[in-house]
Task: structure prediction
Amino acid sequence: MARSVNSIFFTFLYISFIYTLSPYVNATTSQSDIQVLVAIKTSIDPFSITPDSFLSSWDFNLDPCETTGASFLGILCTVPDQVDTNATSRIIEIDLEGDGLEGFLTSSIGNLTELVTLNLGRNKFRGPVPESITNLRKLTSLQLYENFFSGSLVDDIGVLTKLETLDVSNNRLSGSIPSSITSLRSLTRLDLSNNEFTGKIPQLNGLWLLSSFDISNNQIYGNLPQFPLKIKTLSLSHNLLSGHITPVHKLRHLSTLDLSDNRFSGGINKGIFMLPELSHVNVSVNRFTVFEVVEFSDKKSQLHTLDVHANRLHGHLPVNLVTYPNLTEINLGHNLFSGEIPSEYWSRLGFSWRNLNLEYNNLEGSVPRELNRTLEGVQGSFEHNCLICPKGLQLCHGQRTASECHGGDHN
Result:
């Protein structure tokens, strides 16, 4: 209780001190912009402002836009017209990333109408994102990631049509994704991951410049929409998404695809493996039953990592995986694959393939003895199958018992 009273008392003195020192009369910086800077600083718990933080350098005895050296760090301004002696400087960038600041984002932030960049990432801001942020019509980068912002994302966010980067990841935002987000046609990067968003993904194919979309670790449900054709990174993991994944087949520039831990069903079809720039694929922990791997003879295939574990895939292991020259990490574990491991796999394992996981399937047959000489540094597991393994092969330890293998119930 005593600390709480002291905190309130010192905060009052701190606010009074700042307002007393603010030299508005002689400033070349816009008076309204200075007032916003004061409001930002006074909305922060002073005990969270460390001596090495940018905010500690905001000395209101000085003019924010005329200051050089180590004062008003994290602030960039316009240069006033030298001909117009009445012209004032305006704040165009605020960057307080990683300062560990605790407090609220003042609604007066909307008065910085020339602001182009706002980066408050990796702090401890809490409460809602102010509605007034929609007044910042020149904003190209809005980064509020790794804070404690809560409530819904501003409904009218779509009026910020110049936004190129929107990152509100790792907060406590909830509600549905605003439909107006489809108006942000300048967006190249959209990160809403690690929040509490619900509802469906809006149709994003109108955001034709979008190259990265991350909505992982939310509570999003429904089928996949159509995505922009230029997208390179698509991260939708740890949601409640369902249906087929055919919309992905059109994304010719896709490099990274993560659909893990959802409720997708149907097939992991050959269309995905024909995407020429695809490097990393994770479709694990879903309900897929079919796995089609097309033969890839073109040396331009970029596929490096493939993870399909914890699905309901059945049939034989796909031989065509050996036709992908850049493939090094493969996880086919925890499925219903049966039959023998293709002999073509052995020539890859220990050479181009550095990680092969086949555990918890219904595989049978003999594993070659010579693997003991080629598996140095190889990771993975063949355990919990019905394989006959050479003595000392660590990857093969922990096979099912004979009764389990011949009893008809392999899982």
In short: Residues 2-21 form the longest helix (20 residues). DSSP finds five helices and 27 strands in the chain. The two ends are 59 Å apart (CA to CA). The first strand starts at residue 75 and ends at 77.
